[in-house]
Amino acid sequence: MTTDRPDPAAPPGDGGSPVPDPAVPPGDGGWPVPDHRALGLRDGLPGLRDLMERLLDPEAGCPWDQRQTLDSLRPYLLEEAHEVLESMHEPGAHRAELGDLLFQVVFHSALREREGAFDLDGVIEAIRSKMIRRHPHVFGDASQRAMSAEEVARQWAAIKEVERGNEGPPDPLAGVPRGLPALQRAWRLQDKAAHVGFDWPSIDGALAKVREELGELEQARSTGTPEEVREEFGDLLFVMVRLAQKLGVEAEDALRRANAKFERRFAEVMRQCHARGLDPAEAGLEVLDGFWEQAKAAERAAPDD
Fold first, then answer.
1. Is 197 exposed, middle or buried (0-12, 13-18, 19+ CB in 10 A)?
2. What is the four-CA torsion angle of 241, 242, 244, 247, rounded to 10 degrees?
């Protein structure tokens, strides 16, 4: 990520990475908070623009930042967005990661400004205007202010269709990025379809569909081709995402948490093998599963933080 660029190798205090000063109030991660005003940077968002201008200054700026393009920043933008999601359990980390993501917005805008396309003010104006247009119940007719959340969602979709200038049939699924993680995209597609009434009225319908898809997967496994198995497995995953939403669970987050739980418990399995001088590949499933159950029991017995 751009905020973690490697510094040239140098001893601390000699032009390399700074060392925390215990006499200075700590900022993120215990690092001192620089006096940005003494560096000629304004407060708030304008100061972040000042910082970007300094980094991109052709004579006194940063060679790494000067070398970046919109294409080279793509992986950093994706990485920062994921790090925001992973940090949301802890306010301090969340604050820092939101800053990293905001820096990407400022960086992209600065590069576009140099092309003569738009600047950060244009980005802010675009989202401000969109939010005003799509919230007439807040910024417009006072008679609409008693709308329910469901009515607001339908109105949002209708306004979006008008903005798109769609003269053909309505396309509620338009605008769902194909580059989203598959679970997230499945949620967005089904959520948009639900806004026009294409959804089970209760959780029971979603559960019945899960059972139906599981049965079709079993049938494909018994008599179908590998492609049919893949298709039925995809259908099952797809409907599980909708079931999760009806349970009040975000599928991507649930799987992320399950991944983290697996990593913790598997690390304990490996630790147990190491402590006993066992080669995990030779220990056998019964032994490994026993260590797994021990790790599981220990987690459940541990007091909550």
1. exposed
2. 180
Query: 260: number of CA atoms within 13 Å, CB side?
Result: 8
> Which amino acid, 117?
A
On whether the CB atoms of residues 168 and 187 are closer than 8 A, the answer is no
70: CB partners within 8 A, 6+ apart: 108, 111, 112
Residue 170 to residue 174: CA distance in whole angstroms? 9
Tell me what pLDDT residue 7 has.
39
% of residues, the chain, pLDDT over 70: 89
**Angle (deg, nearest 10), helices 285-301 and 251-275:** 120
CA distances from 105 to 8, 81, 101, 128 (A): 26, 11, 7, 15
Distance of alpha carbon 241 from alpha carbon 250, whole angstroms: 8
Output the average pLDDT for the chain.
88
Both structure tokens of 22 = 């215990």
Distance CA 58, CA 193 (A): 49
* 26 bridge partner residues: 32
Residue with tokens 């306010």: 91
